[in-house]
Amino acid sequence: MEVEKFLKVKTVKTQRQFLVKWKGFSRNYATWEPEENLDCKELIKAFNDEEDEKYENERVIVLLERTCEPRQPRPSERIKRKSKVLDTPEVTGKRMGTTKAKTQKKK
């Protein structure tokens, strides 16, 4: 069987394994193969280069997000935050869900 491309990589007990998409087969038949069983150094290098580039792009995005102003919460998020804070027993000093019923005296 011939390797079409690598989908993912993982490390198991210090051994790298690649999720291999085989030529002529669907993704359902992809299998995890140890690097030592694969004889396609060019594809492994290309995959590693792609992964490095993805990692660099993610790193740049994170750095940009840190330098930008923080995102303002959406109105629905603000409401949720307020209700969580205001409904806590520590803030109100009252037990939640318990109310005393008023009793009316008959005349």
UniProtKB/TrEMBL annotation:
Record keywords, A-Z: Nucleus
UniProt entry tagged with the keyword Nucleus: yes
Gene3D superfamilies listed in its UniProt record: 2.40.50.40
Subcellular localization(s) per the UniProt record: Nucleus
Keyword Nucleus annotated: yes
Domain (Chromo): residue spans on this chain: 1-59
Leader sequence segment: none
Family matches, as CDD domains: CD_CSD (cd00024)
Classification via SMART domains: CHROMO
Region (Disordered): 71-107
Name of the protein: Chromo domain-containing protein
Organism for this UniProt entry: Orchesella dallaii
